[in-house]
Amino acid sequence: MLKNETLRNETVEKIYKKIGENVKKYREKKGLSQLELALKMGFKSISLISQAELYKNKRHFNVEHLAKIAYILNIEIEKLFEGVNEIIQEEKNKN
Length: 95
What we know:
Layout: H1 9-29, H2 34-41, H3 47-54, H4 63-73, H5 84-94
């Protein structure tokens, strides 16, 4: 029988939260407000940014958002994934 190799929803949510925390950290390091980042990304309000940074209402950044954020903040996209491998490894250790 094949073992289930899927991440649990709880783990995926931890990943989204971690990515949101990283976006906030690097946004603040660059001195940008949520509104400034949102406008640079082509949005008219901070709704997505504020909710995705906190993973509120299950809103999260997609790959396009992360690519734009990395470009705007002039950072490597990998920085937005810091800590994600540890979350995945935790999941593997539970199985």
